[in-house]
Amino acid sequence: MQYAKIIGWGKCTPPATLSNEDISTVVDTTDEWISTRTGIKSRRVSHVGTGELATVAAKRALDCAGIAGEDIDLVLLATCTPSTLVANTASYVQQQIGATGAAACDVNAACSGFLYALQNATAQIRAGMVKRAVVIAAERMLWHVNWAKRDSAVLFGDGAGAVVLEASSEESGLLATKTGCDSEDREILHIRNFGTDIDKHDSSQPSDILFQGKDIFKRAVKGMSEACDDVLSQANLAFEDIDMLIPHQANLRIIQAIAKQLQLNDDKVMVNIQHYGNTSAATIPIALCEALEQGKIKPHSHIMSAAFGAGLTWAASYIKWGERVTPIIESKAELPECKQTGLEIMADAIKYCQ
């Protein structure tokens, strides 16, 4: 039996920040209002494109694995905020990491994108189609925010995370998964004024993230909990067998509800939404990297992950970790220097929306 072992991991979080206090100077809100409803205290703002965020995360993951880009057969980039649609942004990353000849493809399942892409890459490795893959999730969600609206302005942030997979006889990596889409109510979470359905000659309206919070909360908790139950059944595991839950970081209340459904104590749940906000597809790999940095993932840990996003896509995955929990090479990959604050980076966008 062949498996897709995770041998490298890396994240890229831009240096500029937007605190709740910063946002309160733009829209009518307060730190207390944001933090009590979402758990978010701050978020990162990117001064570079999605492709550059993805490239740094991928390079760090490759260094962690101790391999070069030329050793990669497949580059999958989960994103709903690509730098370019044609050519796909994954091809930019392929070029920048030196993965000459590797297949390159973008995957858009919104917040569920990383788990969708991880499933895809794992399946290709287990089928013998490729030997090594880098799976990345990168987003510039703040690019879509309408700064005239409080509900979307407070939630989102930018960032990227990546993992490297390698064919192995060791039973590790993604071992059970369930993905799906509840498309009947896809309109309760979407970005309007973006894509070929709009009038490209009318630029009077900015792109805008629209969602119905109460409905999304109910569907997110139900969808992710049921998917986790399905995955546990596939893997012949019980709630108590899970060492760490790494959920999509959309809202602290949703995370707490999922943890309660899975009967997991707080020390078994990875939460970092307070630092980054909702980075869509990138939340899970960023949280995975930080769980490793903080020593929360041990050799052979049983990890459950779950996500819910626009579409309405949903996913849950069981990952059995391997032996190594530290990088082989400490990466020197960095973003270009940023000399602006988060508010300065977003100044033009804020002015346009207002």
TrEMBL record:
Region ACP-binding, residue ranges: 249-253
Domain Beta-ketoacyl-[acyl-carrier-protein] synthase III C-terminal: 232-321
Catalytic activity as recorded in UniProt: malonyl-[ACP] + acetyl-CoA + H(+) = 3-oxobutanoyl-[ACP] + CO2 + CoA
One family name in Pfam for this protein: ACP_syn_III
Signal peptide, first to last residue: none
Superkingdom in the source lineage: Bacteria
Gene Ontology CC annotation, any one: cytoplasm
Subcellular location: Cytoplasm
GO molecular function: 3-oxoacyl-[acyl-carrier-protein] synthase activity; beta-ketoacyl-acyl-carrier-protein synthase III activity
Gene3D superfamilies in the record: 3.40.47.10
Domain Beta-ketoacyl-[acyl-carrier-protein] synthase III N-terminal intervals: 106-182
Annotated EC: 2.3.1.180
Entry function: Catalyzes the condensation reaction of fatty acid synthesis by the addition to an acyl acceptor of two carbons from malonyl-ACP. Catalyzes the first condensation reaction which initiates fatty acid synthesis and may therefore play a role in governing the total rate of fatty acid production. Possesses both acetoacetyl-ACP synthase and acetyl transacylase activities. Its substrate specificity determines the biosynthesis of branched-chain and/or straight-chain of fatty acids.
Family: Belongs to the thiolase-like superfamily. FabH family.
Domain notes: The last Arg residue of the ACP-binding site is essential for the weak association between ACP/AcpP and FabH.
Subunit details: Homodimer.
PANTHER family, alphabetized: 3-OXOACYL-[ACYL-CARRIER-PROTEIN] SYNTHASE (PTHR43091), BETA-KETOACYL-[ACYL-CARRIER-PROTEIN] SYNTHASE III 2 (PTHR43091:SF2)
This protein's name: Beta-ketoacyl-[acyl-carrier-protein] synthase III
Species per Swiss-Prot/TrEMBL record: Pseudoalteromonas phenolica
